[in-house]
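About this split. The held-out portion is used to measure sequence recovery: a designer receives only the structure tokens and must propose an amino acid at every position. Recovery is the fraction of positions where the proposal matches the reference. Here is one held-out target exactly as it appears in the evaluation file.
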């Protein structure tokens, strides 16, 4: 499965989780990805690790937009290592830009709203469940400069960071995500 960034940084106000999912869906379709993508965010109703059905999918390889390995398995994201990127490959946006090295993303963070195991944090650590850009509200973000997509940095919702999108279906139509 693929983990790809939206094409521009966003504040914590993404019109909720459905708005963030819509961004991922629209950008994936615009750039010709045939499968379904959802926002790689925790919310009131979902943990990050719940985006994909547990079990046999734990060992599916996670690729970037250029089909290079980011994680040997989904479990490598949620094993408590803060989603440490151990491969030398980068996270790309749907339009092919390297998030870590492109000036479009001046701050090298990704929104997630989870702890290092992919479990949701409370409302006050998810920009009011992704519906606030209030400078006094906060969310958990991952630090790409440290190569950790689930690090426990807590930053203000008014800032603009990368939104990651996770592919949740396969070409054969098998749905990986929870219904």
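Reference sequence for scoring:
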């Amino acid at each position: 499965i693929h983990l790809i960034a939206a094409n521009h940084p966003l504040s914590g106000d993404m019109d909720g989780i459905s708005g963030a999912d819509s961004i991922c869906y629209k950008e994936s379709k615009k750039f010709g990805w045939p499968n379904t993508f959802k926002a790689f965010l925790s919310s009131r109703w979902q943990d990050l690790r719940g985006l994909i059905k547990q079990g046999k999918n734990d060992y599916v390889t996670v690729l970037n937009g250029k089909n290079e390995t980011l994680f040997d398995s989904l479990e490598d994201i949620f094993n408590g290592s803060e989603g440490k990127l151990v491969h030398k490959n980068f996270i790309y946006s749907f339009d092919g830009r390297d998030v870590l090295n492109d000036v479009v993303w001046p701050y090298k963070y990704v929104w997630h709203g989870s702890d290092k195991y992919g479990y949701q944090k409370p409302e006050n650590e998810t920009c009011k469940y992704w519906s606030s850009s209030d400078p006094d509200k906060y969310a958990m973000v991952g630090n790409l400069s440290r190569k950790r997509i689930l690090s426990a940095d807590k930053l203000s919702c008014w800032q603009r960071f990368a939104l990651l999108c996770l592919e949740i279906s396969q070409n054969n139509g098998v749905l990986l995500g929870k219904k």
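Annotator remark: The helical segments are 16-30, 127-130.
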